[in-house]
Design goal:
Layout: H1 2-18, H2 40-51, H3 60-73, H4 80-90, H5 94-107, H6 112-125, H7 128-141, H8 146-154, H9 160-171, H10 177-183, H11 192-201, H12 210-222, H13 226-235, H14 239-243, E1 265-266, E2 272-278, E3 284-290, E4 293-294, E5 300-304, E6 309-320, E7 328-334, E8 341-344, E9 355-363, E10 371-377, E11 386-387, E12 390-401
Helix pairs in contact: 1-6, 1-8, 2-3, 3-4, 4-5, 5-6, 6-7, 7-9, 9-11, 12-13
Length: about 400
């Protein structure tokens, strides 16, 4: 909480510093507290110039007097009421400062000073919902200031009350939501807060979109937090797809692809075209069309989270004049930088009709929390990546459990 308060105070001065002010030249300083000019704009400029001295050198009494004089001359004057509140706060008159800032914020949605001050004040008092409403006002009206707020708002994910307030604010789907959610992932070593935030959002009236969820899932997978990523992915599945879940999921390619890690992921590559197309029987199937050239193909993937045990991987395949040295094969390997290969299917090439394939494999009891299923050109050296053309088709892929548990 202390870090959040400090961030809020720093935020106030960052906003003040963003206001274009010029320090008063030494040879023009006034000896009295009240500026010489009685013009409202000049009085306001005097208050701004005084604050330009910096937080350690500002004479807050001079700011208060100049802003109050500007208000007396012309009550609607620009930022005068907000500066008056800053002056009161600087001289320790907290209650009067709060009243002035609330009045200034009610008068204008574009005056960043009172809204920023109230944002910091509400953070310190634990009224996170009110704080975020002020942040929303500023980010919408002055989007160039949004990054200043994002860093302190992100810290709310570490506080129970802050997390709830953030989820409520984001459930309203403000225009800055997607960008802010991405900023919550700036610290990959601290994903607990963002994960909890997404989990709450998924239960809201405006759950996160796939494009908002994708960076979090990728970050969790990269951090080895496969179960956390899987739980978030399961929550966003359409009901009919959730009802048909099995160890592989969508092995017949009948559900639209989301591009998320636990779904089929197609990565474009020169020399090949990956798609879901209808077979002659009208069923959806995976097909890869190759063109002439060297193609280091490893570009169809799916992340699995299989518990330890023995499994059989089955499916149907067809080659359509695929001309290459060794052929295409499915590989299953433990996720990780040096993941153990668990199974490889018989390479497919040439011309065949639809035929069945299967291979068995064992997920070990340790060191294999998740697995990658990958379709690749079965090449041992670069020369074996040369393809003269052709295509392959796959459908009705499935993984089912078989046999006994592996020993630990």
């Amino acid at each position: 909480m202390a870090g959040l308060v400090a961030a809020g105070l720093l935020l106030i001065w960052s906003i003040i510093a963003a206001v274009e002010t010029d320090p008063i030249p030494a040879d023009q300083e006034q000896t009295s507290a009240r500026p010489a000019s009685s013009d409202a704009a000049s009085l306001l400029a005097a208050a701004e110039a005084e604050m330009a001295r910096g937080p350690e050198n500002t004479d807050w009494k001079r700011v208060t007097i100049a802003a109050r004089a500007a208000l007396a001359e012309d009550p609607p004057t620009g930022r005068a009421l907000g500066y008056y509140g800053l002056g009161l706060a600087g001289t320790g008159e907290s209650d009067q400062a709060l009243a002035a800032m609330r009045l200034a914020a009610d008068r204008s949605l574009r005056d960043v000073i009172p809204h920023t001050w109230l944002y910091s004040h509400d953070l310190q008092s634990g009224d996170f919902g009110s704080a975020l409403s002020h942040a929303d006002v500023i980010i919408r009206s002055q989007p160039e200031l949004r990054y200043i707020f994002y860093d302190s708002m992100r810290q709310l994910t570490a506080l129970p009350g802050g997390l709830n307030a953030l989820a409520t604010a984001l459930a309203a789907d403000p225009p800055w939501r997607s960008e802010f959610l991405l900023r919550t992932l700036d610290q990959p070593s601290d994903l607990d807060g963002p994960t909890a935030l997404f989990a709450q959002l998924q239960e809201s009236r405006s759950p996160p979109l796939n494009r908002e969820v994708a960076p979090l899932l990728t970050a969790l997978v990269d951090a080895g937090r496969f179960q956390d990523a899987l739980l978030i992915w399961l929550r966003i599945l359409p009901p009919d797809q959730f009802a048909s879940l099995d160890y592989l999921s969508n092995g017949d390619f009948r559900f639209p692809l989301s591009g998320l890690p636990f779904d089929w992921t197609f990565t474009p590559i020169p020399g090949a075209e990956i798609s879901i197309a209808a077979t002659i029987d009208g069923e959806d199937a995976l097909t890869v069309q190759f063109f002439r050239g060297r193609v280091p193909f490893r570009n169809v993937t799916k992340l699995l989270v299989l518990p330890p045990g023995r499994y059989i991987f089955t499916g149907r395949e067809r080659a359509d004049d695929l001309q290459t040295e060794r052929g295409m094969a499915w590989k299953i390997a433990c996720a990780g930088p040096d993941g153990e290969t668990l199974a490889t299917t018989q390479p497919l090439k040439g011309r065949t009709g639809w035929q069945d394939f299967e291979t068995t494999f064992t997920v070990p009891a340790g060191g294999c929390q998740a697995q990658w299923l990958r379709l690749e050109l079965d090449a041992r050296v670069a020369l074996e990546e040369d393809v003269a053309g052709g295509a392959v088709w796959y459908d009705d892929l499935a993984i089912r459990r078989t046999g006994t548990e592996p020993r630990t």
